Amino acid sequence: MFGPPGAGKGTQGQTLAKDFNLYKISTGDLLRDEIKKKSVLSNKIKLKIDQGFFVSDDVINSLIEGILSSEKYHNRIVFDGYPRNLNQANALDILMKKYNQKISSVLCLKVDEEVIIKRIVGRQICSICGSIFNEFFNPATQKNHKCDSKFLQKRSDDTKKTLISRFKTYNRETLPILNHYQNQKILYEIDGKGEISEIYKEIHRIIQSLET
User: Fold this and answer.
1) Mean per-residue pLDDT, 21-26
2) Which domains does the chain have, with CATH numbers?
């Protein structure tokens, strides 16, 4: 799943994984889990994230290889937030061959910066069940969220200042990867400005077409 920060990769990837019995792997979640260890490495990672920068490729690739080497995830992964530059994309190609797996499709959500700002600032994540909501577009209610509202949290890096920095970094380092996958004829661009359900219908259609 590709798209600028706040494009909806996590929300759409979560639904996709559920419907097709896959595992959504977010480098952001992997890094936050590492941060909780309170090590020297975790402090360096947190500083980079809070400043809106990407963590080094070696750290990211090592975390990803740990996932790909597990039989549990074999050809059943939805990547969210990886790869983020051509170096990581090339590393992923090598890891896929090493563990006898393949990338079936690359989905890119296209969203305007103004919409993204609201998506980021309003984003909430449940610390119990992991569900993702948004105060503006998809608020948590008693019907769609069984956990207490007190468990809804915001990420420390979900600020407008951090977003602007991450957006510039995305445009500079991540967009060129799309050409890499376009050449492999596995890139699908999707309008990510509409309703969450409508966006997912298009994603679902694409994935189903790959299975036929």
Assistant:
1) 93
2) 9-211 (3.40.50.300)
